[in-house]
């Protein structure tokens, strides 16, 4: 999906004096926003009304272009021949390249509606990377003229922004299907046809070297970048990563507080004195009646967490007291006149001093720590309302393949299958607390479809994840399109692992911003394992996790492994704890069939066991079985 933004400028002294009279500006806004669909989204940045003053309009256009940098500015009004009609003159002072064809089209088509169009003088042109179009002042005429030129607006902005991929796509769709030689003239000498990336003899061997998982992760982390640091309200920070060291600006508790429900007392200096205390008041949690002055032998009723009177020097819990004497009537809900303490009580007993929990200036949270419930509660305790956190990336998930159909479509004998990869990966991303997970649609196995789908994905996302199209088939177009159409760098295209050998990682720049691309295999288990091993650590790294990699535990297989693959293999297991074993048990999921197309082999999976390759395995690997179990292995912990 392409996203274009626009600004509307109404040129009219009458509307400048009373903006409520402006009908044309709102009509243009409605026209473009209504044009938003699955292929293009129009974003209204701003609207303004200026008087019929050439200098004022010129300065307004320049300011809008410099500050907002819109794709499109539409002016309405001031294109006629009266003395106040100055829009064309002001526009010519701004633009550096005029586009007369747009103005000529508007006039020619308007003449079919009204002969008054011959008196219109619209100017259209470019300033920096903004297209400026003059439209008539009437609400009907401005919308009609915009509609006349609308079919070329997207292509015009692509040309202005030098978006070569979109330009090539547009030109290719305009090429006639003929074997005649193409003739060009004038400004159109740069038009090009998208040549097939698959013509000629098919490759029999991949041009990409097979690299290890360790090398792959090193490459990815070298290319991945930390997300920007943003300021968020504490109430919205769950599962974000803290981006700053946080020190307490105040102690907690900020006052001496009671640890127990009971009585705040002033102990007798003579401990042999009979332990009977006069009850002279109460101190409730959150109450402000804490100025009671106690002398020896006096106390106040107190609740857990309540502030102690300054003169209190101990708290005795209610369980260690007896009522010694009662009042005839209740006062403040109590009738206790005096109490007797029936256990030993020491100085400062059951008192939380100021700063007992958190000292002023104490480091309460370190940078790169995930923000869970306890962390957010701690930050709220020390008075924070906002915090700096790492932003989360926007991730687009797309699929490729003519065989794919919607998950709600009925199966037929047409060779179609439901697109399970997309919902699987989008769900996995949401489970990782990625908030912006976008459905990037499904590309057919042809160049135009793949290019369009990738272009829309790159414009929307920081990271694009695709499944399919990265292996050795004649319909696997992803790698060639990335390099030929997006000028991408493919950092690796094959991995020494099973499943997931054709997994691809690339980077490119779109609209001045670096994009990361993961091309995962089309088989669902291969896609999921590659996601777990490569994408998850990358996302965590970008979001600021101090430990982005999966934790590794030592576990024992529930049954022996008698065969190893030439490549290191990641088998899916369920981690279990048993009283019969001193270490966790890794129960192999679907041990008889861990085929990469069989999602049943990933059901309830909580870990991945990396089996060594046949050539790298220690000779003793097959001899370490014991007590009816299999080998002891390292296991990547995915979840508990």
TrEMBL record:
Known pathway: Cofactor biosynthesis; molybdopterin biosynthesis
InterPro entries xrefs: MoaB/Mog-like_dom_sf, MoaB/Mog_dom, MoCF_biosynth_CS, MoeA-like, MoeA_C_domain_IV_sf, MoeA_linker/N, MoeA_linker/N_sf
Biased composition regions of type Basic residues, renumbered to the chain: 178-192
Cofactor annotation: Mg(2+)
The reaction(s) this protein catalyses: adenylyl-molybdopterin + molybdate = Mo-molybdopterin + AMP + H(+); molybdopterin + ATP + H(+) = adenylyl-molybdopterin + diphosphate
One GO-annotated biological process of the protein: Mo-molybdopterin cofactor biosynthetic process
Key words, A-Z: Magnesium, Metal-binding, Molybdenum, Molybdenum cofactor biosynthesis, Transferase
Origin: domain of life: Eukaryota
Molecular function terms from GO: ATP binding; metal ion binding; molybdopterin adenylyltransferase activity; molybdopterin molybdotransferase activity
Pfam families the UniProt entry points to: MoCF_biosynth, MoeA_N
Ranges of residues in domain MoaB/Mog: 7-156, 396-541
Region named Disordered: 174-201
GO annotations of cellular component type: cytosol
Family: Belongs to the MoeA family.
Role: Catalyzes two steps in the biosynthesis of the molybdenum cofactor. In the first step, molybdopterin is adenylated. Subsequently, molybdate is inserted into adenylated molybdopterin and AMP is released.
NCBIfam families assigned: Glp_gephyrin, molyb_syn
Name the record gives this protein: MoaB/Mog domain-containing protein
Organism: Rotaria magnacalcarata
